[in-house]
TrEMBL record:
Organism: Iconisemion striatum
Name the UniProt record assigns to this protein: RNA helicase
UniProt KW keywords: Antiviral defense, ATP-binding, Cytoplasm, Helicase, Hydrolase, Immunity, Innate immunity, Metal-binding, Nucleotide-binding, RNA-binding, Zinc
Annotated compartments: Cytoplasm
Domain Helicase ATP-binding, residue spans: 14-192
Reactions this protein catalyses: ATP + H2O = ADP + phosphate + H(+)
Domain RLR CTR: 544-673
Domain Helicase C-terminal, chain residue ranges per copy: 362-533
CDD domains per record: MDA5_ID
Principal location: cytoplasm
InterPro entries: Helicase/UvrB_N (IPR006935), Helicase_ATP-bd (IPR014001), Helicase_C-like (IPR001650), P-loop_NTPase (IPR027417), RIG-I-like_C (IPR041204), RLR_C_sf (IPR038557), RLR_CTR (IPR021673), RLR_Helicase (IPR051363)
Amino acid sequence: MAEFGMYAYQEEVVERALKGENVIIWLPTGGGKTRAAVYVAKKHLETTPKAKVMVLVNKVHLVDQHYNKEFEPFLHNRYQLAKVSGDSEEKDFFGKVVMSKDLIICTAQILYNAMINTEESKHVELSDITLLIIDECHHTHKESVYNKIMRCYVEKKLLGQKPLPQILGLTASPGTGGTRTLDCAVEHVLQICANLDSVIVSTKNYVPELKKNVPRPIKSFDIVEKRDADPFGDHLKWMMKQIHEYMNLPHDVELRECGTQEYEADVVILEQRGVKENNRCLAQCAIHLRQYNDALLINDTLRMMDAYRSLEEYYNTKTAMAFDGTDFLLLGLFQENQVELKNLATNPVYENPKMAKLESVLLNQFTPGVQSKGILFSKTRKSIHCLHDWVTKNMVLQGAGIKADILTGAGNGNTHMTQNEQSNTIRNFRKGSLNLLISTSVAEEGLDIPECNLVVRYGLLTNEIAQQQASGRARARDSQYSVVAQAGGRELRRERINEFLEELTQEAIAKVQSMSDGEFYKKRIELQTEDVIFSKTSQDRKTEKKSRFAASNIKILCRSCFKPVASGSDVKLLEKSHYVNVNPDFKEFYRQGGRVLLQKRFEDWEPGCTVICNNGNCNKDWGFEMKYKESNLLPNLAIKNFALETPDGRMTVKKWKDVPFMVDEFSFEEYCCNNMPDLFD
């Protein structure tokens, strides 16, 4: 193991895996789980006839990282390796890639798609794999893609079907599953073990070595007293009260405190109720109240001007979408108060004291001539952009030598980053041209980020797993882990709870590890059997729900103006993921917006323009056109932007999988017959 630079604690945790057992390796962030997995993969390839190793990750950027940093350097001389993600052309013939390579690193979704695809060039069976490595395996629960794969595995195992791959899971913490008692935490850890058909192992004999190599940071709670006065926030609440009075709140509705997550949940439900009851006034007022509540949350965490700008940007888009009297009133309310809000937001007397405390925390670590590296974690993409703007415009922080940039998840939105942008940012951080990353949770889990001597959690409410992973980023000697929070606030309470849950997780794992083999295996089989039965029952219920109504009996309405625009039977499922309207008359109800630009390239289609409701001034965004097979424009619709009129009343759903009718598969031949009959004369 010398050429791998393996520590004794790593050698200890791979012992059972090297004997062919299914194992979950539990080591803290920075403990070298992936390096241990590379070693197991190497030994497996050397000793197993017709070996085929597959490494699953849950984020696209981890495909390249694991390939370039870990597996390729140690294995490429003797073995054929491949990396495949949704961005790779290889996904289109994944079955052939698997057959021709010794080790494949891919996102879990790629494998699952291949398992359910019947095309020979794309299909993969679990029996084709001899070792399945699952990174961040604590995500193997409920309906995650990891668990869908492992449920197939468990079903085959319970039926006695062989061969099946050996399983190797990697995690920094399985967590407690949201529970707060030891018995329930033990049950959660056992469920993760059952889902992965594995035992959970950790170092017992080399704990001091592990602690030496993965030092814990010095934790500090940097507490801020509540603002003495908040006239900007008070004025927002006064405006929200005006909307409450205008909307004539139903008697059975009691909204909780403004400026909280609970209030946000209340107005989300209120909007849904407005849609269901054909009460557009109620629905639209609820949408605007959510924006004001967002501004209050931003005001609590960031600068007053950040909160003001969030409202200003929102109402700039609403000017062209005033559809009826309710819209004009809500737009007018903001415009009448806009000058007053801006004046209050620019008054430094009432600025958020958390920002001054954050400045102090950063200055304690960053001084001219001192080599420091830090990560500042915040909740949303919007908040990290605001924090980046603050850091770059703060002359004191710039004078301290802070060179900051943002790090967000990969995606196609304006505030997302491409994989290349992520890689460049981390590369610049590693070589020192950047010394502060301002990041969402993307940097908590998995990303290969160099050792930091400062980690700050700012305005965050997360679980104990995320807290441990963020803390694990501060790996330098005598590093600092700071929680900036208001005295008695929610963040402080949550951080304290997470500390308790971290200890509870350790106790639960110890209890599971102390079970006798017989007791553990009996419990594991019991949980696996229960899960398979529950899954099948749940699937039957979903199928029954899907068949509740005929598609032709469903009217699809614009969620904003409530105009009926389609029938359920107009919608077809294209390539198992896109819900397109094939009725040529649908064109009458929408107009084209701007071009849609996606980072990925697709085999049979490319994006066109956005699709927008053309009923008066509604302008509700519905989705975008797909140019399919180079010539056919198919509107690809997001169901969250619509309401459904069913024989039992009106309803809303977030995702197409929740609609109460069956959506037929798209047939290109049938579509051409109906829409281009000349081709078939």
